């Protein structure tokens, strides 16, 4: 009987330790979808803002392809310090990831046709808010608001570039 109780206590202790470890590594993925209408056909928009290193123009910084060209697996370095890898690509979209980012940061840039003379420009961010320096609800809200403001500005710059004749 004592052995059964000891085994039960040990099992519960191990289960509790496993649960604590899971809680320590919990995730809280945030998705920030941003969209704007562009008064230009999708193919025109993509030619102007769809290159993997066109981000330098939208964010007014430097962008250099450090390996891989323009295909999946290519790596770009932004502002001389941020490396991003191209993880997916279609005719009018691509998704990138920051492989060294503690927040498991990803972004997708996409253009969708919206009639013959206009299109939708979409920028979607996904990241793990549980890994933020301040993962509290207030810290998360502040981070989401900051990224939303920054990338809304980026999207507006992309729209201006795409609509310029």
Key words describing this protein structure:
disordered N terminus, 7-stranded antiparallel β-sheet, alpha+beta, single chain, Alpha-D-Glucose-1,6-Bisphosphate, Chain A, domain 4, 165 residues
Blueprint (SSEs and pairs):
Elements: H1 2-24, E1 29-38, H2 42-49, H3 55-58, E2 63-67, E3 75-78, E4 82-90, E5 93-97, E6 106-113, E7 119-128, H4 137-163
Antiparallel strand pairs: 1-7, 2-3, 3-4, 4-5, 5-6, 6-7
Helix pairs in contact: 2-4
Briefly characterize the structure:
This protein is α+β, with helices and mostly antiparallel strands and 165 residues long.
* Secondary structure tally: strands: 7
Helical amount: 25-40%
**Radius of gyration, whole Å:** 22 Å
Tally the helices: what do you get? 4
Proportion of beta-strand residues: 25-35%
Low-confidence runs = 1-23
**What's the CATH H-level homologous superfamily of the domain at 26-50 and 90-163?**
START domain
């Amino acid at each position: 009987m004592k052995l059964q109780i000891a085994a039960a206590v040990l099992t519960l202790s191990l289960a509790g330790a496993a649960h604590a470890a899971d809680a320590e590594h919990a995730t809280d993925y945030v998705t920030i979808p941003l969209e704007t209408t562009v008064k230009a056909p999708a193919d025109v928009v993509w030619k102007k803002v769809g290159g993997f290193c066109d981000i330098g123009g939208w964010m007014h910084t430097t962008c250099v392809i450090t390996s891989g060209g323009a295909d999946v697996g290519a790596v770009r370095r932004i502002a001389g310090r941020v490396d991003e890898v191209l993880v997916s690509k279609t005719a009018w979209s691509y998704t990138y990831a920051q492989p060294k980012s503690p927040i498991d940061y990803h972004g997708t840039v996409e253009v969708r046709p919206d009639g013959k003379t206009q299109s939708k420009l979409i920028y979607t961010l996904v990241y793990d808010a549980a890994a933020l320096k301040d993962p509290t609800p207030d810290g998360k809200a502040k981070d989401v608001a900051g990224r939303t403001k920054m990338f809304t500005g980026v999207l507006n710059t992309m729209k201006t570039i795409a609509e310029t004749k």
